[in-house]
Amino acid sequence: MTAPLTAFGKVACLVILLALLALPVIGSDYLIDIGTEMLIFALFALSLNLIIGYSGNVSFGHAAYFAIGGYVNAILLTTYGWPLLPAFVTGVLAATLTAAVVAYFCTRLTDIYFAMLTLAFSMLVWAIAFKWRSVTHGDDGFVGVTVPALLDDRMRFYYFTVIIVVASIAVLWVITHSAFGRSLVAVRENLGRAGFIGIHTRRMRWQAFVVAGFFAGVAGALFGMLIKGMYVESAFWTQSAQVLIMTLLGGIYSFFGPIIGAAVLFMLERLTNEYTEYWPTVLGVILLVILLFLPDGLVGLGKRLTAKAKGKDKTEGAT
Amino acid sequence: MKRIIFSAVASTALLAASGVSAQEIRVGALYPTSGGGAIYGGPAMEGHNMAVEEINAAGGINGRMLVTVARDTKLNPATAASAAKEMITKDKVDVIIGGLSSAVGLAVSEVARQEGVIYIATIPKTIQLTTTKLHPYVFRTASHTDFEGDAMAQLVKQSGGTKVCDIQPDYAYGHDLAAGLKAGLARHAPEVKVVADLRPKLGATDYNVFITQIMGAGCDVVTSGLWGSNFVNFAQQASPFGLFNQIKAYISGGEVASHEIAGKMGDDYPPNVISNTYELWYDHSVPGHQEFQEKVAARSGTKETAMWPVLAYIGVQFYAEAVRKSGGTNSDANVKALEGMTLMTPVGERTINPADHQANTGQFWGPMVKREGFAYKVMHPVTYIPAEIK
Questions:
Q1: pTM value?
Q2: Chain CA centroid to CA B218, Å
Q3: Is B369 exposed, middle or buried (0-12, 13-18, 19+ CB in 10 A)?
Q4: What is the ipTM of this complex?
Q5: In chain B, positions 8-47, which contact chain A (CB-CB < 8 Å)?
């Protein structure tokens, strides 16, 4: 997890980046739409993994920061007519600040108590979005977000998303591969021992939470502009559960795991929804399979399969 | 990862390229068909399919067949917005019909505005859809809260009550209906006072606090928009207190006079209820209704039928007529065709107002009483209150 990119990894990243840039040229409006949405959810899942995979705490309330970023950006753009840059930045900062306050309390706890408190705070955010009708329009939804003319075009908004998301992923990569990221892993692996060697564990967990809130806010702000609306469902616990499953599906012990999880779950949901209304059943089965057979997600499965293949090659070579 | 993305891209590209024929008229249907909304969305989808099958059996429209592309909204506006976009960009639908909750209606309408594709709202009632959020591509064949509130005000006047307790679910529909009722009372019965304004949570199960407040407020009429299970829970808890016997009338929007509610509650259905519904399976006062109802009954396998199918059915009827009139699926031409269009539906004649794209969808109102030949309370006499605000 903390190993730098291998040569293969570098090539893979380059290929994916080129594919992303070329998508609108070869693709239809549909591909551009799902590409944009998938990128946003990839960033959302990746931000959550900073709390789960790196600092070792399960958050059941990550949707709160997604929703705050989305709502604040949408309201400032639409109700107050702010330009994009200040609105976007303020939205992300609002998410970050809320995360800072929530994390102050949550990081005093661990395990299930931590998870429950994150859930409680996120439901508070949901309740505010639901009840503060004069500002958020409650459960009618904040419909008709004013997107700046420059981005009010499918392809341009896609490229905007690619730039923001790729830059965010790069920053997250640097963070997780710095001394900070490595210390976080130490905290995850053994909280007590990490404390003994001089790591301020609570502060580190707090910092990870704040960074995660920041990037969830970025994802939320992008999402609100993509669907040109923000809805209270985006702050509800089911949204937190969805991104949690994305992260688990991809694999929490790998940097890129959540991105893969987000992409796979997103496409599965889209394709399933076309043929049947039993998506919740499919989701339940996926969750069961992850918990029972794939504790380290798809990336873990991939690693085990390649290791097995390599092991087999070696034994064959020996005989 | 690379492989996953490539295969996902390839499979979707394949799907996108497959089976879209220029000859078909592609109709997107958006109803909740899973979870809590499925009890409404399921029957609505039946009505939609029935309309499409009937049109196709009669040779389609100008020789072109209708094809339905259906998606589950899961009652979630963000999901509905994504699904609507996907239906337009990938499935190339020519129109989107449906929606259930107000939030889903508004979200889908926003997508319709961006993409320039017609959206016909068949069930969402929020007034905003045809006022503050109105745009050229949105039409509504459902009623709305101003019509419903106005009808309730007329019934309050008829009941002779002077003090009203208003109890509404605490969300978009309840708020809008309360506003519609107040405006209606000012028009029809300015002497009537609203003495209690109560807002239980949507989906609440314990109404005891509200029941005692109503009992103590001294009102002679209760008005409400508690619908579905909200009404069932409220009525079952209020009956032992004698609330329904103490008042002149319980005047309710939210279609609690429909078969779904009255049939389900049976003898538990309280007295003195005056309510509304879009359709009654036993009332054939509109020509053609009997035939329609028998077809729905044959599909559902029960003599009694729900009121949801007709709503979806009417949405398809309007779009089909627009295509017939304009000669194609061009959105702008069909907007022109729909504006001012008058159609005969199984529940009466409907005209779409060209100014606000709202159909003059009134509802059937009347007291719920026990009658011979019925296992549960039914509406009698049935009065159609037209959608007019005077």
A1: 0.83
A2: 33
A3: middle
A4: 0.78
A5: 8-9, 11-13, 16, 33-35, 38
